[in-house]
Specification:
two-stranded parallel ribbon, transcription regulation, D-Maltodextrin-Binding Protein, domain 2, LysR family transcriptional regulator substrate-binding protein, 5 helices, single chain, alpha/beta, 6-stranded mixed sheet
């Protein structure tokens, strides 16, 4: 998607990034909101009664993750590396619903953005907060140093204004 924005094929993109993401000098990123990473563990698992866990604890269990090359996996790899941990990846799959189904079946644990779990059947799973507030920023990416159409600026401002309204009324 970054390439499409960079080449001018699309005006902007809704993207995710985290503190460990590379800085793109030729792109401007406007943060809209934070999406926490959470641990998804099978009900009855040793970690399931807890409210939270850590990367160190999760690294001791078989992990079910996206394959390398997927943004989420790259973010998680950098977070494990920052804590000098090597994750035990048991299975790689694209598709949050498939990863969650494997967790529910007891094949391992997973780390997912909280937002990605919305609307999924979580029966058989427990969701734990990750200590340290790890997550990703969701925002609008635009090419830097390029003029933008008024409509692009208008669309870019809508989610930010809705977020402010939600903060005031929520």
């Amino acid at each position: 998607m970054r390439g499409l924005v960079r080449q001018g094929h699309v005006h902007m993109a809704l993207m995710s990034r985290n503190d460990a993401s590379p800085v793109l000098a030729d792109m401007d990123f406007t943060r809209l909101f934070h999406d926490d990473f959470v641990a998804v563990v099978p009900e009855g698992h040793a970690l399931s009664p807890r409210k939270g866990t850590s990367f160190a604890e999760l690294a001791r269990h078989p992990l079910l993750l996206n394959p390398k090359g997927v943004d989420l996996r790259e973010m998680l790899e950098r977070l494990f590396h920052a804590e000098a941990l090597v994750p035990r990846v048991a299975q790689e799959l694209i598709g949050t619903h498939a990863l969650v189904a494997l967790v529910a079946a007891g094949f391992g644990v997973s780390i997912q953005p909280r937002m990605a779990l919305s609307g999924l059947d979580m029966q058989g799973c427990s969701v734990l907060k990750l200590r340290g507030g790890a997550g990703r920023e969701i925002g609008v990416m635009l090419p830097a140093r390029r003029s933008h159409a008024p409509a692009t600026h208008g669309v870019q401002g809508v989610p930010a204004e809705q977020g402010k309204a939600g903060a005031l009324h929520g």
